[in-house]
From TrEMBL:
Superkingdom of source: Eukaryota
Membrane-protein topology: Multi-pass membrane protein
Lineage of the organism: Eukaryota, Metazoa, Chordata, Craniata, Vertebrata
Protein name according to UniProt: LAAT1 protein
Keywords: Membrane, Transmembrane, Transmembrane helix
Compartment annotation: Membrane
Entry-linked Gene3D superfamilies: 1.20.1280.290
GO MF term set: L-lysine transmembrane transporter activity
GO cellular-component term (any): lysosomal membrane
Primary localisation category: membrane
UniProt feature coiled coil, ranges: none
Pfam family, one: PQ-loop
Annotated source species: Pelecanoides urinatrix (Common diving petrel)
Length: 79
């Protein structure tokens, strides 16, 4: 739901920090690695992969809107 709301208002770069997102993906990556190395149930591995993919989408969204908002700010300054 957060991904959808961020797409609607275009302000994900103001709601979350990049450091927070990087810590979040680091935790989910270590969860996935732990699941894989300890031969957890397939559903646990699939869930870990799902969370990593959602993190990648959120980081991509953050970068996209950060660049888009910076570009819009620069355009407003030069007008």
């Amino acid at each position: 739901s957060q991904i959808y709301v961020a797409c609607r208002n275009g302000r994900v770069d103001q709601a979350l920090s990049l450091g927070f997102l990087l810590c979040w993906i680091a935790g989910d990556l270590t969860n996935f690695i732990g699941c894989y190395l300890t031969n957890q149930l397939p559903i646990q591995i699939v869930t870990a992969i799902f969370y990593v993919n959602m993190d990648i989408i959120m980081i991509s969204q953050f970068v996209y809107y950060k660049l888009k908002n910076q570009k819009m700010t620069k355009c407003k300054v030069f007008q």
